[in-house]
Amino acid sequence: MNKFIGEILNILKKDKRLFSKDDNKLLKGELISLISKDDEKLLELLSSNKEIEKRFFKKIGKITIFQKENFLQLITMNEFLPDSFTAFEISIGLSNNKKLMASQEDISLVFPHKDCILEGGQDKEDAKREEIFFNTTLAPDEVDRLKEPKVLTNWKKFDSKGERKIKEVSKNDNLVIKGNNLLALYSLLPSLRNKIKLIYIDPPYNTGNDTFGYNDKFNRSSWLTFMKNRLEIARELLSDNGSIAISIDHHENHSLKFILEEVFGADNFIQDVIVETSSPAGFKLVNPGPVKVTEYIIFYAKNKKTYLPTEKKLFVEDKTSEVYSEIITNPKEKYTNWKTTSFDKYVFKKLEVENLKELKKKYNDDLAKEIFNTTKREMAIEYADYLFTTYKPDNPSKALLEKAIESKKTPNSFIEYSSVNNSIYYLKNGRIVAFYKNKLKEVKNKLVPTKHLTNLWTDISWSGITNEGGVLLNKAKKPEAMLKRIIELSTNKDDLVMDFFAGSGTTGAVAHKMNRKYVLIEQMEYIHELPEKRLINVINGDETGVSKDVDWKGGGSFVYTELLEWNNKYIRELGSAKTKTDIKKIKARIEKEAFYKYQIDTTKFDNKEFDKLSEKEQREVLADVLDMNHLYVNIDSINDATFAVSKEDKELNKKFYNQK
Ligand SMILES: C[S@@+](CC[C@H](N)C(=O)[O-])C[C@H]1O[C@@H](n2cnc3c(N)ncnc32)[C@H](O)[C@@H]1O
């Protein structure tokens, strides 16, 4: 071990709080926590050592500053107790600007104006720089009123009669909320804490891609902060038997796993699913190495002990399964008289040939095999009750073993065996008889051979989803069939499902068709063109996606509302401002109505200098003076005349926030 590290450890030993009483090992988490809180006793102890003082304490005049970041960096290094492979060390990868994600309380806000900026005629490089400007990270001391619930406005209800204003809102309403999801989630917390059974999200994958209408290019640390902020509150919203499922791809799935482990705990991991999203074709083949055709869904429970997935054993069609080979020819008689033959004979009879050789004379080899196999699979469903195979009992009880020995004495007959729980089995030649009917299950309203659902999903088609729900979302839409499976796995009828990266509203549409309740959150203006329109289509009996599988006929309703914007509207408008004249008009309104950051001294604002700035710089300066705590109107300001909240909205907010 490095001598200096040894010295630090010796010094730390003087603080009993830092060592486990059981095995006297250093409690790294405790050390970090005390360092983060500037614990006086610990700082005194550290500064008492000359070497530590020299390296981590800086004197400026009469003031001494502890260089906390540097110290944290050192103790998170692998050399510092390399043998203790603790959860803490695992999270080393998740340091953000040298601060550990676990101990970091920054908040990342994200604004969606990339497209507008591109339309403004800028080249790609400019657009990339804009991204950084619009992803704002706030340090804890800048977060003041951000997390308080917000005023909701523009309430509307949609049902089969169309759209109308409302006077009532009930906890049974499906909700579609427009606004920044972090702030919307905080607004939902008072009424939905511990109430949500399933949260499915499909966040920006951080692909660095320009082709989406929303931000998908964060630097990794902003993305991590962005996700951590939202996952922490998602966890609070989940019920004790609730779970979360997150779509992600190779860009961030490893970082995401770290955050999930931190927020939900490693013990609550349920499963990673690999989803086949496409087949190798076209341009993808140009890339070197294996072709990427998959992405992932990561499942975590809020509390694995109370999460009950076993109730939900799902089956999927097994297209490659072998059809059983023997059939009982006289099933109506008592089992003791049952006779058997090869099932192939039935198939040849139907095909009016004696054997495969004869069939091959009629067709070529491959076609004959294909015809034979297809006919056999179809007939197997029809004869499933009498079609069987046999298998050797695994770990048999004494009674079963005795029956098996008895059965071997008359190898061509069936004998009966009744298990301890009174289930009836048949044995033939010492082996258990399995009927093909037990392999069949109804999938998509059709009886088919099945197997247990695994964590490899290759059976969901992505190719025909463009028109699902009657709305388009380029490249980002998920298949309804995938959402159906996720919802089936984790919820029952009437359970509450949430998606706070709603996009085109796939989660809401499927939840609606499957009689679950739902809450969707989406920030973009296209909320009206996409999820809202899609859910209206669903109410009106949308026939696409999973409609046939769930026998969807239409009906139901949802309520739309949005966070009442304040500073957010200037950021939104600045994003789409194309000329300096546009910016000037927004500036005038900001001067009149907006809330500035407390550090801003408006008397020092130099208008002449401002005029000389480029459009991009002007937008940056203006966005930078706005207080992020006032993006939307806080509920405790609802009666403030500045915001002119209508009487109806006041009433609805009161009802919404008071519902239990
Ligand atoms: C990948 S898309 C979701 C697609 C969706 N699963 C579907 O099937 O249509 C991600 C969505 O999250 C939204 N989003 C990203 N950041 C957000 C934020 N901070 N608040 C609200 N919505 C956000 C984006 O605008 C985008 O529509």
Describe the overall structure.
The protein is an alpha+beta fold. The chain is 35% helix and 19% strand. Helix 10 packs parallel to helix 11 and helix 17 (506-513) runs parallel beside helix 18 (528-539). The longest helix has 18 residues, at 220-237. The chain is globular, with a radius of gyration of 32 Å. The protein starts with a helix and ends with a helix. 34% of the residues are buried. Residues 82-94 and 111-134 have low confidence and may be disordered. Bound molecules: S-adenosylmethionine (SAM). The site of S-adenosylmethionine (SAM) has 19 residues, from strand 25.
What does the secondary structure layout of this molecule look like, with pairings?
Layout: H1 3-12, H2 28-36, H3 40-47, H4 50-56, E1 57-60, E2 63-66, H5 68-75, H6 87-90, E3 95-96, E4 99-100, E5 107-110, H7 114-119, H8 124-134, E6 135-138, E7 152-159, E8 162-164, E9 175-178, H9 181-192, E10 196-201, H10 220-237, E11 238-248, H11 253-264, E12 269-276, E13 294-301, E14 315-317, E15 326-328, E16 340-342, H12 343-350, H13 356-362, H14 365-382, E17 387-391, H15 398-408, E18 414-418, E19 424-428, E20 431-435, E21 440-443, E22 446-452, E23 456-457, H16 480-490, E24 496-499, H17 506-513, E25 517-522, H18 528-539, E26 558-563, H19 567-576, H20 580-593, H21 607-612, H22 615-625, H23 647-658
Parallel strand pairs: 9-25, 9-26, 10-11, 10-24, 12-23, 24-25
Antiparallel strand pairs: 1-2, 3-4, 5-6, 7-8, 7-26, 11-13, 12-13, 14-22, 15-16, 15-17, 17-20, 18-19, 19-20, 21-22
The protein binds S-adenosylmethionine.
Residues 110, 112, 180-181, 202, 204, 214, 473, 476-478, 501, 503-504, 506, 521-524 line the site of S-adenosylmethionine (SAM).
